[in-house]
Specification:
The protein has six helices and 13 strands. By secondary structure, the protein is of the alpha/beta class.
Length: about 280
Amino acid sequence: MWFAERPVLQVALLENRLVIGRAIRRRGEPNGKTEVVAVAPSGMHAPAWHPAMAALSTWLREHDLKRARLHVFLSSQLVRWQLLQWQPQLVRPQELEAYARLRFRATFGTVADSWRVVHTEPLPGRALPACAIDETLLAELDSLQSIGETSVASVVPYFSAAFDHWRSSVGQKMAWFGVAEPGSLTLGLLHRGVWHGLRSARHTDPSAAGWRSVLPALQAQIQLASGFDLSREPPTVYLVGCGTEAERERDPRLVWLVGERDDRSPAQSGIERMAWGA
């Protein structure tokens, strides 16, 4: 008996867009067809992720795929980030989990009680990047199983996936790493692979360079909190997401991280690449 290969879908969820890619040659490489679906903003009392999730459910039903496997990347607009300082007195995993939840509740209020908090592996003396995701969103993703036995293989913040993909390009020197998305910029400061700041900001500029309107303020806030003096030798800014390499002409210390393309693999826009975590 022959079994049909399970379709693999690369999905990015944003507040106002749904991005879906079909992996053709290799999973995790942007070589397949990518579709961008515009969605209306959520209502006043609806969660920000609801329109994109509704569009994803509709898309799956219309395409009638059987046993599809989804790799989902979440826009920074749908997660909340914090950089947790090293706490040597927290020796058990349960203590660290409780501390992370406490910090999110202190920053965002009681709404954080309905979020799932995840973080990187703790390393002695290093700040710990942590993010929070709405538990209801994760439950909605699990419920996609009712549509053609769809399964969700992974759910990852796009910022995390993009950094893991481009980590070697950033190197060990002091550097800024950012993700530009429609309406927002998430920016971190690194030195020798250690995070010294991580913040997000929203903007209303609809252009591809809208992130520039919030970049200086984010840099100033992160630099002040880090205690570093970056004025003598400003670090390179490495960006991925929605923008163009032409932006480097305005700032030689700006590097857009874009994968190499060839004739068999047409170039994709920044928002299309979000579905591939790169």
